[in-house]
Hints:
By secondary structure, this protein is an alpha/beta fold. The chain folds into 4 domains: about 100 residues; about 180 residues, P-loop containing nucleotide triphosphate hydrolases (Rossmann fold); about 55 residues, no CATH class; about 80 residues, Orthogonal Bundle (Arc Repressor Mutant, subunit A). It is about 50% helix and about 10% strand. The strands form 2 sheets. Strands 2-3-4-1-5 form a 5-stranded parallel sheet, with helices on both faces. A two-stranded antiparallel ribbon has the order 6-7. Strand 6 and strand 7 form a beta hairpin. Helix 9 packs parallel to helix 10.
Amino acid sequence: xxxxxxxxxxxxxxxxxxxxxxxxxxxxxxxxxxxxxxxxxxxxxxxxxxxxxxxxxxxxxxxxxxxxxxxxxxxxxxxxxxxxxxxxxxxxxxxxxxxxxxxxxxxxxxxxxxxxxxxxxxxxxxxxxxxxxxxxxxxxxxxxxxxxxxxxxxxxxxxxxxxxxxxxxxxxxxxxxxxxxxxxxxxxxxxxxxxxxxxxxxxxxxxxxxxxxxxxxxxxxxxxxxxxxxxxxxxxxxxxxxxxxxxxxxxxxxxxxxxxxxxxxxxxxxxxxxxxxxxxxxxxxxxxxxxxxxxxxxxxxxxxxxxxxxxxxxxxxxxxxxxxxxxxxxxxxxxxxxxxxxxxxxxxxxxxxxxxxxxxxxxxxxxxxxxxxxxxxxxxxxxxxxxxxxxxxxxxxxxxxxxxxxxxxxxxxxxxxxxxxxxxxxxxxxxxxxxxxxxxx
Length: 441
């Protein structure tokens, strides 16, 4: 087992390192019987780096040494040991990549949960998010890694895309990946049965018994480091109520989140949702193993979306991004309409002094609007009528003294913004609500 200070510790999650160290030491004795009989600390470190699929240059950078030094050392030691161990001729190893490939073929790779990327959404283009990726990597690795992280934000903000990129970059730190879309709202017992039948080295667990299934899952996650992604958790939450309440028949998802957040294990559960749940709210904290990330809109990185759409008037792109709060999906939709209706001119579009609400954008907001309680909807109408930011006191005068719960719920849903001047609707939400009011009048 690698010590905490050693490099490339993630290799231990995928490889039988102790057996490799022992068998390579035997191969070493065949080549250099006069040398130290076991692998040296440096040889072990270089081996772990290669098993993590780092190139000699990348290994050198992490060891603060010259790439040539690493290459020479590998050529004289590990490359030769691996050739002997895998019963290949001396000097037949042509690339550093051969080390991991040959040792995997020889059976030294640990039994892993198959990573089926066909279940993971394709993200062909990705903009910005370096800061968020860095933070999430910190939260998912190292001795203080979180058990659970929830990424929150409105529809189209890029929650799923962010976790796809994160999973691609950290997958080698885990024994396996389960990517579970909740878009079609599977019952918990059905989902757990599907998971448990995929996990290697797990005794059969009776289908339909949620308690037994949860016990089997948590025990497995204690002994294996798995990455689990629950995408679109909000689809199992109740419509017409304040944020975070489960639909009938889905309340036991709360037990899943509570146990995976409270109980000790070495795995990590990542969640995307438009709203949080009471379990996450109770367990979340800056120094606790459960964290939440409110995903903001894109800043300057959103210019890549407008550039891809071949829009003109680059100096005014920033204003367009601010109007739509850097929401990638909304910006793609609006950019397409600007190209079609205004020949790609952002300037001509902005001269109209309107916030463009296409049917696609309206559908995005409508999805969230239908989830709101009556009190939340009434508060949206009031904020749309007032148009300007207002404080809590003014809202209590306009509606009722009991507005703190619906107001807090709307803020958590990213429909209402808070600034020094008070509370107001996001521009796109403002236009949607005012349009809805005009049709209802």
